[in-house]
Amino acid sequence: MSETVEHRIKRLKMRSWRRGTKEMDLVLGPFSDSELIGLNDAQIVLYDAMLDENDHDLYGWVAGHIPTPESYLDLITRISKHAFKT
Question: pLDDT tens for residues 3-35?
């Protein structure tokens, strides 16, 4: 049996809030709470894959300290705008 959309969103939210670093909890947790439901299937698959990346790399991408891989660029840009909105 395949995973339902509701279960997948719940699982991704949990993984977003329970990262290896508090900084990424605070970046990805709020993003997942407000934005995951609006992502299309391809974006959800990409977000799921992104969660397997190292937290230090993720934070560097979101903060703009290191270049983001092309495959994640649109998603990381969206996450960064959400995390650092003023």
Answer: 888 999 999 999 999 998 999 999 999 999 999
Quick one: how many helices (H) and strands (E) in the chain? 5, 0
Give the N- to C-terminal CA distance of the chain in Å, as an integer.
Answer: 43
Tokens for 70? 């092309």
How many domains does the structure of the chain reveal?
A: 1
C-alpha distances out from residue 73 to 11, 24, 34, 46, 69, Å: 23, 17, 20, 11, 6
Residues in the chain: 86
**Which CATH number covers residue 72?**
1.10.150.250
Write down the pLDDT at residue 86: 52
- Mean pLDDT of the residues in the chain: 94
Range of the domain at 50: 5-83
Whole-structure pTM over 0.85, yes or no?
Answer: yes
The Cβ of residue 49 has, within 10 Å, a number of other Cβ atoms equal to 12
